[in-house]
Design a protein that fits this description.
By secondary structure, the chain is mainly α. It has helices at residues 18-26, 31-37, 45-51, 57-69, 85-105, and strands at residues 73-75, 81-83. Pfam families: HxlR. This is Transcriptional regulatory protein. Keywords: DNA-binding, Transcription, Transcription regulation.
């Protein structure tokens, strides 16, 4: 399992451009979906897996580990996963893209 380096390096690249590191992390399977499903409220592992169309538990846990290491997701006291303030800020940044996608789909 590959953790997102704090430097923002992209897997298989020598670049340290933060935008490329972020896009690499968000481009991994299920990463954006996890953030999207957590945008309104924390979810337990099981509820998150259900919300993610029964994603593989192994892959889901790998992504949660990466998103936690990146500072976007945290494990709450009650055992559920939720967004950190940085994760909420990222979701707010994605919302204009979501609105555009909805318009484009029509």
């Amino acid at each position: 399992m590959t953790k997102q380096p704090a430097s923002g390096k992209v897997r298989g690249s020598r670049t340290e451009r933060p935008i490329m590191g972020l896009l690499d992390l968000l481009g991994r399977r299920w990463s954006l979906r996890i953030l999207w499903e957590l945008r309104d409220a924390p979810l337990t592992s099981r509820a998150l897996r259900t919300a993610c169309d029964e994603a593989s538990p192994t892959v889901l846990q790998a992504r949660l580990t990466e998103l936690r290491a990146a500072g976007f997701v945290e494990l709450g006291d009650g055992g559920g996963y939720g967004l950190t303030p940085l994760g909420r800020e990222l979701c707010e940044m994605v919302m204009p893209l979501h609105r555009f996608a909805e318009k484009w789909r029509r």
